[in-house]
Design brief:
19 strands; 11-stranded antiparallel β-sheet; TIM Barrel; alpha/beta; Thiol Ester Dehydrase, Chain A; single chain
Length: 692
């Protein structure tokens, strides 16, 4: 294997400039103590490269001693076929560098690490000396650790074909630039500048970029540091311990997401026309930079695969099994088909309290036992948006549709049939009520499945129903199933529930006003609500656990960066509704006509609400006048709505023809750029309240 590596090195240095890639992985470069046990420690590690140091860590008077010690240990074949590099003395140290090269220019050594590299001239001088001393196939790795080296980075990277990688020495660089005297352990902007410029110089020269020693030894800090370097284009780092080495190997390997992206780039058409495509096509277009990056990912993976194929002695192991539900969506779907699930939840008081706190629920039916009991209920009811989330979230996503699911469009037609109380145990029935193929270029690309989801209490009574639309990958459709349509009597039950609620309120609570100053509501009004909401990671994760959400983007902060952690869609919808409910006063009854998530919300994003009163009617029950209005609400992120209070707001923004994500984005682009990219959800609700 060593001979194969040496042959590859010879090929590298004879190729044209700026195409030098090492034939083995470079994720971890371990450096250890200058003792026999230290060298054995390095040899036993899983580091991709072993490095020996002749510079700063060796006292001046002991240079010759350690030079001979290293030579002796290398010749005993302690490192076998492992890639080996030696950090020699700096060129400014007189003859020490040439003595190092003369004694350590051994076949087992593939290259020399050159400290304090400051210009291309010194690299050319070292390369010339190597050629004269039978070191034609030896490679050079300059270390950038001074302001002079930083200024000449691109010159250094491209000075000679022997250069295969760039190191950045952050410790010495910080000292040289007086940026290390900070006491908060945070890197300075100067340090970050070195990281970025080293990466760009290496990429422009077609060589590797390697991070310096990480002196933070706890696993979390090492992982954070390596991950930062990897994001900035580095290929590996110097490590000092076995745990650090293992973390570097993990963090600098191609991730599953990177490999999937590279595969998608490879599979896309290379003949896309820039001039004949829509913006959506242009966003997916594959150009030379994408293909180059995909090739680099595959090459990195191939080198790692070859490296890992070397025989190793290890204990017995087994590949983990993927946990999947017993049923899959491989069988045909049909209208009327029941979707099996094992969902069951007991509504605990602590969860309802948390929900009411998160969304500042003000409706007395949901927070006041006294008022709820006056209306003939056993106690406070569970808020309908909580029930809608429960019926459409994790249970359906984790059912047989889950494996084929691509996008959830939101939920529709949600309403109470019977009261739901704290400590009720609910199960779920889901039935397919509509199937629609999505055809593109005469080919079925996706399918829209509409399901009707009913929550069932412990008495086997349907208590809440809501529809949901889901985009899935195409499957076969068969003739309609013979299952009973369980929605046939629900509209009657819903109307009866509404009538009972209004009657009981008018008899027992008509003179009670918890909010004596609600907004006056008239048809055609646009209301900008002052109340806002946002979510922490803890709130988002707790909600996801309760609803059984499995999407890693909700909770997995180890896999995804902060900007990729998203708030659950139902939380955005509920925040949008509850922001306005504070101003509407005592809501006696409500229905969820439509709720759509349109854009992602990240942790900490502020959600505000705009409401448009689409219609309004009045009804008198037992001498109490009620107002019923349909309201369209838009959830808006990262915008202070006070900025819009002096701006005419186009009503078309709230029309039914402008309800989808693309419709709203197109309209905002052409007519109302203040909301471009900021509308995160759209609700349409029917609200009944006592007239103020």
């Amino acid at each position: 294997m060593l001979e194969r590596y040496m042959n590859n090195f010879s090929n590298i240095v004879t190729k044209r400039r700026f195409s030098k890639k090492l034939p083995f992985p470079t994720r971890s470069w371990i450096s250890t103590k200058k003792t026999e046990s230290g060298l054995k420690y390095a040899a036993a590690s899983n580091a991709d490269v072993i490095t020996l140091d002749m510079e700063d860590s060796v006292p001046h008077l002991e240079k010759e001693k350690y030079r001979e010690f290293y030579r002796e240990m290398i010749l005993t074949n302690i490192f076998k076929s492992r890639p080996l590099a030696i950090r020699i003395n700096a060129i400014d140290d007189g003859d020490l560098i040439w003595q190092d090269i003369a004694r350590l220019n051994l076949p087992q050594v593939f290259g020399f690490i050159i400290p304090k590299a400051e210009n291309g001239r010194m690299l050319k001088e070292i390369a010339s000396r190597l050629d004269k001393e039978n070191g034609q196939n030896k490679l050079l790795i300059p270390v950038i650790e001074s302001s002079q080296g930083y200024a000449n980075l691109f010159e250094i990277a491209q000075s000679t074909d022997k250069i295969c990688a760039l190191f950045f020495g952050n410790q010495d660089f910080s000292s040289d630039n007086c940026t290390s005297l900070t006491f908060d352990n945070e890197p300075s902007l100067v340090d970050d500048a070195l990281i970025v410029k080293t990466s760009l110089a290496a990429k422009s020269a077609g060589i590797e970029a390697i991070g310096a020693v990480c002196t933070l030894f706890d696993p979390t800090s090492s992982e954070k540091t390596f991950r930062k370097w990897n994001r900035n284009g580095f290929d590996g780092a110097v490590t000092l311990t076995l745990p650090q080495t293992a973390i570097a190997n993990r963090e600098f390997s191609a991730s599953v997401e990177e490999i999937n992206w590279a595969n998608s780039v490879t599979n896309r058409s290379e003949a896309m026309s820039v001039y004949s495509k829509t913006p959506e096509h242009l966003a997916a277009m594959v150009g030379p930079p994408h293909k180059k990056r995909a090739r680099e990912i595959f090459e990195k993976e191939e080198k790692l695969r070859a490296h890992l194929s070397q025989p190793k002695t290890h204990s017995e192991s087994v590949m983990p099994s993927t946990l999947k539900p017993a049923s899959t969506c491989s069988k045909p779907l049909s209208i009327g088909m029941m979707i099996e699930n094992n969902f069951s939840r007991t509504i605990r008081e602590s969860w309802v309290t948390l929900w009411s706190t998160l969304f500042h629920i003000s409706n007395p039916i949901y927070i006041s036992d006294a008022i709820a009991q006056k209306m003939g209920f056993r106690g406070t009811l569970v808020p309908p948006l909580l029930l809608a989330t429960l019926a459409t979230g994790g249970p359906v996503s984790n059912s047989l549709l889950g494996e084929k699911m691509r996008v959830q469009f939101g939920f529709f037609n949600g309403y109470y049939i019977r009261p739901v109380y704290v400590n009720d145990t609910l199960s779920l029935q889901s039935q397919i009520v509509d199937l629609k193929n999505v055809v593109k270029d005469e080919k079925v690309t996706n399918m829209i499945v509409t399901t009707r989801n009913a929550l069932i209490n412990e008495h086997n009574q349907r208590v809440f129903t809501v529809d949901k639309k889901t985009l899935i990958y195409p499957v076969e459709i068969e003739s309609n199933a013979n299952s009973e349509d369980f929605s046939s009597n629900e509209q009657l039950d819903e109307n009866q529930f509404r009538s009972e609620v209004m009657s009981n309120w008018s008899k027992n609570c008509g003179k009670l006003h918890r909010n004596p100053f609600p907004f006056e509501v008239n048809q055609g009004q646009v209301l900008l609500h002052d109340h806002v909401n946002s979510f922490t990671h803890s709130e988002n994760k707790t909600s996801g656990n309760f609803f059984g959400a499995k999407n890693g983007h909700i909770h997995n902060v180890q896999r995804f960066s902060k900007r990729d952690i998203i708030v659950m869609g139902p939380l955005s919808i509920t925040a949008t509704a509850s922001n306005g409910d504070v101003d509407f006063g005592d809501i006696v009854y409500e229905e969820l006509i439509e709720a759509r998530n349109l854009s992602k919300v990240n942790i900490g994003d502020q959600i505000s609400t705009m409401s448009f009163i689409q219609s309004k009617s009045t009804e008198i029950v037992n001498g109490i006048e009620f107002e019923e209005f349909e309201v369209v609400q838009l959830g808006v992120k990262s915008l202070d709505l006070d900025d819009l209070k002096t701006t005419p707001i186009p009503l078309e923004l709230f029309s039914d023809s402008c309800s989808g994500r693309r419709d709203i984005e197109k309209f905002c682009l052409e007519n109302f750029t203040q909301l471009l990219g900021r509308v995160v959800c759209r609700l349409k609700r029917k609200i009944v309240r006592q007239k103020p």
